[in-house]
């Protein structure tokens, strides 16, 4: 099996446990087909950060020519209790200065949101506008339902 994805597709989605072994089959993606990048909430917070780094490698080194941004219903980052997380960090010895060093603040650093659809549209737009991602790579935004396995197009890349 080669390193490059057989279907030349990269998928960027959330780390939610319910997507494991469920999203890929729903998309018809099997081992060797696609690069899959995950984080908390399908968030892009930095135009040269880790997600963009991975997508740049996927496109420019491994031949991906199509991107899918896939949010999901009932995402934990849509109602993240930042105060509770901060309290847990402090209770478990994370230094206050490590927390206060996060820019611009803890809440924005987490990149939470209220509307899962708005987040998919926003992230899709950020990828389309990112100069490191060539204009000939379509970026599709989709919504996954972790209860049913249903997929819905939020915005088509072409
Ligand atoms: Zn999620």
What does this protein look like?
This protein is of the alpha/beta class. The chain has 2 domains: 9-78 and 114-155, Carbonic anhydrase (Beta-carbonic Anhydrase, Chain A), CATH 3.40.1050; 80-111. It is built from 6 helices and 5 strands; from the N terminus they run E-H-E-H-E-H-H-H-H-E-E. It has helices at 23-27, 50-60, 82-91, 96-100, 106-110, 116-129; strands at residues 9-14, 34-39, 66-72, 139-144, 151-155. It has a 5-stranded mixed β-sheet with strand order 2-1-3-4-5. The longest helix is centred in the C-terminal third of the chain and has 14 residues, at 116-129. The two termini are 30 Å apart. The model has no long low-confidence stretch (mean pLDDT 96). Bound molecules: zinc ion. Zinc ion binds next to loops. The site of zinc ion has 7 residues, from loops.
């Amino acid at each position: 099996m080669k390193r490059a994805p057989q279907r030349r597709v990269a998928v960027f989605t959330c780390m939610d446990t319910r997507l494991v072994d469920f999203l890929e089959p729903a998309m018809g993606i099997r081992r060797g087909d696609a690069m899959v990048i995950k984080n908390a909430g399908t968030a892009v917070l930095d135009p040269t950060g880790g997600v963009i780094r991975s997508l740049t490698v996927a496109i420019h080194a491994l031949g991906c020519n199509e991107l899918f941004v896939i949010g999901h219903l009932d995402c934990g980052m849509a109602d993240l209790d930042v105060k509770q997380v901060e309290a847990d960090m402090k209770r478990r010895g994370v230094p206050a200065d490590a927390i206060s060093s996060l820019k611009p603040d803890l809440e924005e650093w987490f990149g939470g949101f209220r509307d899962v659809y708005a987040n998919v549209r926003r992230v899709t737009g950020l990828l389309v506008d990112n100069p490191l991602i060539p204009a000939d790579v379509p970026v599709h935004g989709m919504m996954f339902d972790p209860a049913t396995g249903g997929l819905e197009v939020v915005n088509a890349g072409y």
